Every structure is written in C-alpha cells, then in structure tokens.
Amino acid sequence: MDEAFENVIRSAIMAEKESHDFYVKLARISKTPSTKALFERLAKEELKHKKLLENIESSQDINIETEQYNDLDIVEDLLLTPLSEFGALKTAFEMTIRKEENSYEGYHKMAYLLPSGKLKELFEMLAGEELKHKDLISAEYYKAFGKKR
Q1: How many CB atoms lie within 10 A of CB 24?
Q2: How far apart are alpha carbons 75 and 35 in whole angstroms?
Q3: Distant-in-sequence, close-in-space partners of 115: CB < 8 Å, separation ≥ 6
C-alpha cells in the first residue's frame, strides 16, 4: 500500500473514531429512549466501519457486510421532551446529518478513485452506509420537526 493511500486510511479511521465518540456523547445526553437508541446504534455502526478500515491498514482480509435499518420513529418520545430541549435536539440532528453527508462524500470520492476490486467495494459500501445513516437521521428529523433537512 502506498504512503498516500495509507494516510487516507488512517484519516478515515480517525474520522470513524470521532464519529463514534460524537454519537456516544449524543446518546449520553439524549433525554428520550428512541433518540438514545438511534445514537447508540450509529455509534456501533461507526465502530464497525473503523474495524473494517483497520483491517485494511493491517492488510487483513476485508469482510464487506451491510445492515438493514428499521424506522425508529422518535415522534412519540418527543412528546415527552420538554420544549426547552427541542433546540439542542434539533441542532444535534442537523449536525449529525451534515456529518454523515461529509462522510458519504469522502468515501464516495475514494471509491471513485480506486480501480475495481475489494478496496473499491469497501469504500462503496462505506459510502452507502453513511448515506443510509444520513437518510435514517433525516427521516427522524422530518418526523420530529416537520421539515426536510
């Protein structure tokens, strides 16, 4: 693996760790069970992505696997959320959507630059996972706040 590619992999590993930590923090401060579950689930996903990237870095076999997502439907729990917390929750969702969009774009560009093969498939899968995360969060945002993001 050449040095430039190794740097990209290391950066991606750090980004996945930062995303994991971000979601763990959001889960910890979430006041409703469904938002907590959403952020805990996303944290787990980011750890899986990190491990896949670490396998590339250590030249281990790449196992590409995706997960299906079920709708979490946080609206019911939001009825129990005090009005004073809505602003922070809305901001957290907006930040999360932007974070997932940026991750998608980065992985998509990397996949585009790679020749056919396992690495290209991995980055295509990671791009798809980040897009699923964004779509999941966007759907919950729409249900909770009544507008597309």
Answers
A1: 16
A2: 10
A3: none
* 59-113 confidence digits (pLDDT tens): 755 555 545 444 444 444 434 444 445 467 788 888 889 999 999 999 999 889 8
Residue 101, token pair as written in the block? 């969009």
Here the contacts of 33-37 (C-beta below 8 Å, separation 24 or greater) are: 33/77, 34/72, 34/73, 34/74, 34/76, 34/77, 35/74, 35/77, 35/89, 35/140, 37/72
pLDDT of the residue at 63: 55
Domain ranges within the chain, ordered by starting residue? 3-145
Residue-averaged pLDDT of the chain = 79
The CATH H-level (homologous superfamily) assignment of domain 3-145 is: Ferritin, core subunit, four-helix bundle (1.20.1260.10)
